[in-house]
Amino acid sequence: MKLSEFDFNLPKNLIAQKPASPRDACRLMILNRENETVRHDRFYNLGKYLGPGDVLVLNNSKVLPARLLGKKDTGGKVEILLLKQLSADSWQCLVGSVPVAKQIGLKIKFNKNLNGEITKRVEDTAVIKFNLSGTKLMEQILKIGQPPTPPYIKRLAKSSEYQTVYAEKLGSVAAPTAGMHFTKPLMNKLKKMGVQIEYITLHVGLGTFQPVKENDITKHKIHSEYFELDKKTAERLNMAKRVGQRIIACGTTTVRVLESCFHPVIARSVATRQSHSDRAGDCFASLATTEVVAQRGETNIFIYPGYKFKFIDAIITNFHVPKSTLIMLVAAFAGKKFVDKVYQIAIEKKYRFYSFGDAMLIL
User: Fold this and answer.
1) Is the pLDDT at 347 greater than 60, yes or no?
2) 257, containing H or E segment
3) Between residues 305 and 75, which one has the greater pLDDT?
């Protein structure tokens, strides 16, 4: 498929600059894949479309204040976006306002306690080695770092704005934004309804927000991102799937974890006892089942139209950037033509787009 097929014109006034207040007051578009219809509602009414026994899976990754501002020896300003920790004192990062040819060897002073040096380039990123390591380095990052809000948000967002209310495990350099619509009262309401809430972790990195540059999208390679699915959560998810409960993934990051952890399992069950005249023993029937397997590691799964989903039944997501891997995943789940139609409806109805924007529920 061509990259241009995922492009669209979005009026700049529809790019949300701040979240709804309260968060769950944002608009919610409900997509029915079976009959390709849409409904319009508010996120605080999410419970109208879920039921007892539904399983809502959330990404509990917490956003790191990954935007660091420093100065060169000459006094010029340098902006660093931390992406991934490589060792106790080194991070993979993006470097702004410095030509690539001049980055290696560049020394940057962030404050009186913290400085670093760019030691090498790795593909389209840089590696910076700091003078501090371990907990001392993290203390400084947490002290001076700013929220890594995307460039289309023309204001410095508060740290609390760019974080889900259930964020727990520090490591993302961009928010898993579909989850930012939830409030604690809404989550309590869903639990009381009988909705089962489970958590996975994917630390959002370059893989999620890196632009696609290949005209043939199948040639795009996603940077790997760290994820975790623990054993007990996997067991509960598998049990729910076996008894027919719906698995509702909140966010494309959650989708990618569950689909990355899926493995077909062949379960043998006794069908009948063979007669003595035949070969002795039990006769087994093989039954294929669908399970996710507990694991932690890196995933670079790239989901685009043509992909066959294996574990999830519904998705909560935002309205995404043109030509992004995110809109490609949504098109793979809901259908390319239907998603094109939905996005035009969203523009006509003046839905708010991107990180602080409105949401959709795809059933």
Assistant:
1) yes
2) helix 252-260
3) 305
271: left (phi over 0), alpha (psi -120 to 50) or beta: alpha
Q: What is the pLDDT of residues 84-100, one digit of tens each?
A: 999 999 999 999 888 88
Using alpha carbons, select from 145, 172, 202, 176 the residue that is nearest to residue 85.
Answer: 172
Full-model pTM: 0.90
Instruction: Give 268's strand partners.
Output: 286
Report domain 3-63+159-264+290-362's class: alpha beta
Q: Please write the tens of the pLDDT for every residue from 111-153.
A: 999 999 999 998 889 999 999 999 999 999 999 999 999 889 9
**Cα–Cα dist 7/10, whole Å:** 10
Longest alpha-carbon distance in the chain: 91
Residues of the chain with CATH 2.40.10.240: 67-144
Q: Give ranges for CATH 3.40.1780.10 in the chain.
A: 3-63+159-264+290-362
Residue matched to tokens 């290949």? 214
Q: Which CATH superfamily is domain 67-144 in?
A: QueA-like (2.40.10.240)
